[in-house]
Amino acid sequence: MAKSAEPANRPQPGCRLPAARLRQRARFQPACGSTLWRYAPKGTPKEAIDKLVMALQAALKNIDVNKRFAELGATAYPLDKATPAALGAPLRAEIHKWGPIIKKAGVYAD
Q1: Which residue in 8, 39, 69, 110 has its CB near the most CB atoms, within 10 A?
Q2: What is the DSSP string of 36-92?
Q3: Residues 11, 15: Cα–Cα separation, whole Å
Q4: Threshold 0.70, pTM exceeds
């Protein structure tokens, strides 16, 4: 027998915000999520980056860290996605997407 589909108004994992839950109960499915990317200044030595990546990877393997993430309704990226190389692709995609719009608007962060 096929497994029944979950109700459309069931809160999504990670959507802990009251407004998001309210919209879900109203059958409006919000995109609920957040991503935290960390960058180092241009020219940071590779050895320093490697050390930071190793510390991040160790934290993501820690059971207590993952328990706390779960308590907060958060999930960690898989280890293979928590690397500088894996972060490069979405960064380039965001630059490609938003770069022309920002340039056309004449907005700068300087």
Answers
A1: 69
A2: ------TT--HHHHHHHHHHHHHHHH-HHHHHHHHHTT--PPPGGGSSHHHHHHHHH
A3: 7
A4: no
